[in-house]
Amino acid sequence: MHKNVTFAVPGSIETLTGGFLYDKAIVTGLRARGWSVNVLDIGTGFPCPAETVRLRAGETFLNERSTAPLVVDGLALGALPEAASRVSSSRPLIGLVHHPLYLEAGHSAHVREQLFESERSALSHTSHIITTSRETRDRVAADFKVPSDRISNVDPGIRRPEALPDYRETVHVNILSVGSLVPRKGHDRLIDALATLRELDWSLRIVGSDEFDPDHARTLRDLVASHALEGRVVFAGKVSDAELEGFYSTSDLFALASGYEGYGIAYAEAILRGLPVIGTTGGAIKDTVPEGTGILVPPDDADALRAALKDMLANPQYRRIFATTARRSGSHFQTWDTAVSRFASILKDFE
Question: Quick one: 17 and 63 in the same domain?
Answer without folding.
Answer: yes
